[in-house]
Amino acid sequence: MFEFLMSKKRKSMVITIMAKTYEIDKVDSQLAFFSKSVNGLQLLLTKPLQEGIGKATVDGKEISRGEIFKIPISPFLFWILPVGEVAREYGKSYTVKLEGFIDINSNPLKTKIFRFKTNPQRKPDEKYEAHDSIALNAAREGIVLLKNDQGILPLTPNATLNIFGAAQNQFRSSAWGAGAINPRWSPNFWQAVRDHSSFKANAELKELYAFGQEIILSEEILQRAKAQNDTAIIMLTRPSGENLDNKPIKGEYYLTDQETEMIDAVCAVFEKTVAILNTGYPIDMRWTQKYNIQSILYTGFPGMLGTYALMEILDGRTNPSGKLPDTWSWDYYDAPTSKNFINFQEGEDVPVEFQKAVKLYYEEDIYVGYRYFDTFQKDTAYCFGHGLSYTNFGIVCDACSYDDEKLSLAITVTNTGKAAGKEVAQVYVHTPDGELEKPERVLVAFEKTRLLTPGDSQNIHIEIEKKRFGSYATENANWILEGGSYRVYCGNSLKTSQQVFNFELPGTETLKTCQSCGAPVEKLELLTKTKPEVQGNQSGIFEYSNTFGKHGKKKIFDKPQLPKYTGKRITFDHLKQNPSLLDAFVAQMTDEELCRLSVCGGANWAPWQDGTAGRVVPLKKYKLPIFVMSDGNAGVNIKKPNIGFPSSNTICATFNKEIAYSVGQAIAEESIENGIHLNLGPAMNIHRNILNGRHPEYFSEDPYLAGTMAGYQGKGLEENGVSSCYKHFCGNNSETVRKACESIVSERALREIYFKVFECAFDIHQPDTIMTSYNSVNGIYPAENPELLNDLLRKEFGFEGFFMTDWDSYQTVDSVNIIAAGNSFITPGGMNNKHVKPLVEAVKKGTLSRGVLEDNIQHMMRVMLKREI
After folding, report:
1. Are both 103 and 140 inside the same structural domain?
2. 162 in the same domain as 33
3. Helix (H, G, I), strand (E, B) or coil at 224
4. How far apart are CA 50 and CA 426, in angstroms?
5. What span, in angstroms and rounded, lies between the C-alpha atoms of 468 and 402?
6. Same domain membership, residue 60 and residue 146
7. How far apart are CA 224 and CA 234, in angstroms?
8. Alpha-carbon torsion 86, 89, 90, 94, what sign?
9. If I label 419, which of 46, 257, 293, 560 is the partner at 20 to 30 A Cα–Cα?
10. What are the C-alpha distances in Å from 793 to residues 390, 470, 530, 805, 821?
11. What are 275-300's pLDDT values in tens digits?
């Protein structure tokens, strides 16, 4: 249903494009994917409006005009009306009045009145109590206590909460895009205070911040607040998600001027201060030092019950046990990757896809995250693996040995404090420099304890394969251990870990000989211990052409064609009864049928559709069943409400493999209930740069930690009946013009960092599917690179499932090349023959091997058989 707001000269128009309903608890707009904006009613304009002119009211109360922003859907502009500033009652009708607006051509717009209704409040369903419990527990263990000087936390029960900051009404539970959640219920911050704590609100402050904006705090307001409680809580939030990178500007990485003014005013009156950081990525921490903030909690995006977990941590019912999966520097520019990233400044337009392209040179090489800060002894705000507790723990290594195959440790963790809690034992190894220089230390193992009461201990036995601390020698494609002294460290963070053992290797040992794979085809200057500064003068934005990112030399991949089948038709039912018929089942298909199966049947993301991401086309001739997939690292990303877990980096912060598995299990169970056979997750790219928009959707800067946690989530999915999808292979580290972005990276860094995360996940569980990334890697897009797909993933890693592209990858990579490289599935495709026809023609011309097509579809059919649909 559309509403028109026409000017008198009929040259401007405003149209409401979304249903006239409003979801109170949704924080980010549905258009945040294109331009960061808070939730509101969405209007469509043909022309921009003049700034500062016009008034919008809801039930007579004036609201902000909202942000006008361009998105690449020509020729319109979208306008968000933040009606939530007034519309705060569930299931109620409201009236919007727009008056006095003038477009940029000075055309006045007629006054318009229309009505909308807020949706009813979502409520818990007892049927899903077990799944909700997993979501709550994941949030409890994923929230990280960064600082707690003077034991400010936990707060006294029944205390009045002095909450400062607009974030209290914009508390985010998830990212947007593929990593979004659509939970059955998700209490906001103040609902959690009311329903899940004994705390009371400072009513004056709560009402002052009700409009979702920062306010000017007078001395009188602050003194009245301090009279109720001498502790101030400062809340900050930042959105993050697919398609848009974050920026090193005020309001994103840095504080806004209004936030700085608020913090300055609060800290001038309050000596006791707590900061709650509800952000999807690390932000500037220098202000916490400047204002001597005593306690800091990092919530990440904690899922549907994150606010409940936060209440429990604030009042001490839950003892925080999260650990940072990333290094938090004092400032963004402390990290070398900052010089090889597109750092948009205030007012700079983000380029439109297919007009511009991006090249990123990974000069930092293997020194990603803590590997850089630890090796080059750079100060950090909070180190990798850091996270405090309300109690104290002792970690003692009782025994450690190395037997030429593995490293073995016996560790005892004891609760030496006064509160029950959990701790994480972390093991790091230092490897000696030789022909190859090495990072100072790398994580090789971690184990989280059960809940330990005061005085209680837990014995942990850890065995570590020596491949976990091997290095990759590019010259001969060998994984090696070089001779010298190896040191083993153990503790509860990188910084606090102490040396517990050392052993000597007399000479270089070759662990594995590989095939050289993915090497760069252009010169790449690398950071080293003798050249510890990166230049950053090659990375940047370039003009786009259809040859961008395609200057590498591709291998040819081929498979022999199956013997022709002339027998009676074999259906999928026959195949289920006798899987040995697979060759014949595929061989009986025509070229057209094989090509049709190679193209997805389209996404269902339109407002009137169910939100599923795609499906294998069910050929009736062979009684193929429907095989449906959905997005969802943190839930089942469809229109029907379901479970909503914390984002992946918050799951990773639990350092709890059992939680990662349980998350996968619950998503699988709800996927099955909703007719989903393949969940397109977990996503596991490396946190190379903290401002990557998909930071919350990925797990960690460390490949072993990220791969292990993602692997357990994938295992939880697949052992409970739903296929997983490890994505995005590989080097997907920027969302800026992401389909035309090239990563230039050394082969060693690929092996030790960017391939390694997938290899570590494979060590836990082999997935049914792998999704290739949008970006080019060293001159070849992974979707069309048989060297990566078949030589590395199939032959070396042992992958037996099927490959698929990311959605619309055929906009930059030729569909025929995609299938010829070994991909089984082009997405999103559609039910017409637009993307099928070129494949059929290529088979006829001989530029696409039928043998490759058959092999691709065999892999797909094996997965469908495995899922018993």
Report:
1. no
2. no
3. helix
4. 57
5. 13
6. no
7. 16
8. negative
9. 293
10. 44, 19, 34, 15, 12
11. 999 999 999 999 999 999 999 999 99
- Strands 471-473, 442-448: pairing is unpaired
What is the rounded distance in angstroms from the CA atom of residue 98 to the CA atom of residue 571? 61
Output the CA torsion sign for 131, 136, 137, 138.
positive
Q: Using the predicted structure, report yes or no on whether residue 47 has a pLDDT greater than 80.
A: no
Same domain as 155, residue 81: no
Compare 666 and 103 and report the one with higher pLDDT: 666
- Eight-class DSSP state of 564: P
Residue 9 CA to residue 108 CA, distance in Å, equals 8
18 pLDDT higher than 70: no
Reported as a pLDDT band with limits 50, 70 and 90, residue 869 is confident
d(CA 94, CA 420): 49
CB–CB of 40/67 below 8 Å? no
Q: Which residue, 300, 330, 360, sits at the end of a domain?
A: 330
Domain harbouring 139, CATH code: 3.40.50.1700
Q: Could you tell me if residue 406 is inside a domain?
A: no
Q: Are 314 and 153 in contact (CB under 8 A)?
A: yes
Domain containing 782 — which CATH number?
3.20.20.300
In the structure encoding, which two tokens stand for residue 789, read together? 């797909």
Contacts of 626 (CB under 8 A, 6+ apart): 615, 616, 618, 675, 869
Angle, nearest 10°, between helix axes 850-866 and 837-845?
A: 130
* Tokens (6 digits) for 354: 């297919």
Beta partners for residue 102, in sequence order? 108
Residue 479 and residue 509 in contact, taking contact as beta carbons nearer than 8 Å: no
For residue 166, the 8-state DSSP code is: G
Please check whether residue 239 lies inside any domain of the structure. yes
CA 464 to chain centre: 28
From CA 732, how far away is CA 738, in angstroms rounded? 8
**Domain span at residue 69?**
4-118
pLDDT at residue 65 above 60? no
- Alpha-carbon distance of 276 to 862, in angstroms, equals 48
Total structural domains within the chain: 3
pLDDT digits (tens, 9 = 90+) for 23-32: 998 998 877 8
Residue 797 CA to residue 807 CA, distance in Å, equals: 25
Q: Show the tokens assigned to 112.
A: 């318009």
The amino acid at residue 138 is: A
Same domain assignment for residues 746 and 818? yes
Please check whether residues 795 and 675 belong to one and the same domain: yes
111 with 152, same domain? no
Amino acid present at 734: S
Whole-angstrom CA distances from 826 to 203, 327, 559, 593, 618 are 54, 37, 19, 14, 15
Q: Are 749 and 490 in contact (CB under 8 A)?
A: no
CB atoms within 10 A of CB 610: 14
Res. 15: pLDDT tops 80: no
Q: What is the CATH number of the domain that holds 8?
A: 2.60.40
Q: From CA 208, how far away is CA 336, in angstroms rounded?
A: 41
**Crossing angle between the packed helical segments 657-673 and 129-142, to the nearest 10 degrees:** 150
Degrees to nearest 5, angle at CA 308 with 675 and 269: 145
- First-residue to last-residue Cα distance in the chain: 39
User: What pLDDT is attached to residue 19?
Assistant: 62
Tally of CB atoms within 10 A around 8: 10
Report which of 614, 600, 604, 666 is spatially closest to residue 640, judged by C-alpha positions: 604
**Alpha carbon distance 280, 286 (integer Å):** 18
Helix segments in 349-502, DSSP class H: 370-375
Residue with tokens 């007078």: 218
Q: How far apart are CA 39 and CA 21, in angstroms?
A: 12
d(CA 5, CA 97): 11
Give the up-direction half-sphere exposure of residue 543: CA atoms within 13 A in the CB hemisphere.
1
Alpha-carbon dihedral 826, 832, 836, 840, rounded to 10 degrees: 170
Same domain, 630 and 601: yes
Nearest to 217 by CA among 261, 271, 255, 170: 261
